[in-house]
Amino acid sequence: MQNRKPLIDRLQAVFLTRSFDEWETILVGAGIPMGSINNVKQVVEHPQVIARGAIVKMDHPRAGKVHVVGVPIRMSATPGSVRTPSPSLGEHTEVVLGDVLGMTAAEIDTLRAAGGLG
């Protein structure tokens, strides 16, 4: 650890001598796994993301057209699809508390009155 900073400084200086594409060719060719660190725009526009349909455009009732992450696993017999946009804050609170956790309407109202729900 005592030489970490000088090592990082030296590596940074060396890596700045070539483009990412050049280093990718050199390193991958030498069997060294590597990859770029992308920002959100680069990820969304990446050819592989587009080809796999990893980002899906949907209509959201309040936000209009939105982009959401598609189904990450592709299975031939059950391909899956994104059918609804992400819920709004609190949209499914009563269903989860009532149907999933078995709370009564009175118990949910008590939680709400106490400030326990948004």
At a glance:
With 118 residues, the chain is mainly alpha-helical. The chain has six helices and two strands, in the order ααααββαα.
Report on this structure.
This protein is mainly alpha-helical. It folds into 3 domains: 1-36, no CATH class; 38-86, no CATH class; 87-118, no CATH class. It has 6 helices and 2 strands; from the N terminus they run ααααββαα. It has a two-stranded antiparallel ribbon. Strand 1 (55-60) and strand 2 (64-69) form a beta hairpin. The radius of gyration is 24 Å and the shape is elongated. The chain starts with a helix and ends in a 5-residue tail after the last helix. The mean pLDDT is 92.
Q: Roughly what percent helix?
A: 40-55%
Shape: elongated
What is the topology, as strand order, of the major beta sheet? 1-2
Total strands: 2
Termini, distance in Å? 47 Å
| Mean of pLDDT | 92
Biggest β-sheet: count, sense, barrel?
A: 2 strands, antiparallel
**Count of distinct structural domains:** 3
Structural class, from helix and strand content? mainly alpha
Number of helical segments?
A: 6
- Provide the gyration radius in Å: 24 Å
- Poorly predicted regions: none
Oligomer: single chain
Listing every helix as H and every strand as E from the N terminus to the C terminus, the arrangement reads HHHHEEHH
Strand content: 5-15%
